[in-house]
Amino acid sequence: MNLLDRLTVDMKEAMKNKEKQKLSVIRMVKSALQNEAIKLGKELTEDEALTVLNRELKQRKDSLHEFEKASREDLAEKVREEIVFLTVYMPKQLSEEEVAEIVKETIKEVGAASKSDMGKVMGAIMPKVKGKTDGSVVNRLVQQFLS
Which InterPro entries has this protein been placed in (predicted)? Predict the structure, then answer.
């Protein structure tokens, strides 16, 4: 079952169970996916849908950070719930050790030796870990291994 189908099934379930917050999040994500499909002029692949889902999740994490910084616990709690709903649709996240292993392998593959090769390494790694880990973790590990 693809992501849009899963969202539709979950949306119906949320309606039946009167889960307003969950329903709202699912509708926002479906809308974002449909907007992206219209923009691209074709049906989204799983990879493209994952990119949109990742973007939605990142926006909420950024909002959460800002709300916590501004001591707006009421808004922060709402965004935390949205993040929980969204993570259900994300693929299994890689542990930091697994990411480190991928980083080491990729550095060997591309023959990187210094920080000047960082762009080359990041370009090779990101497609491998797309949606499975945060880009900042990858960035930090690449810098660590190239220094």
Answer: Asn/Gln_tRNA_amidoTrase-B-like, GatB_Yqey_C_2, YqeY/Aim41, YqeY/Aim41_N
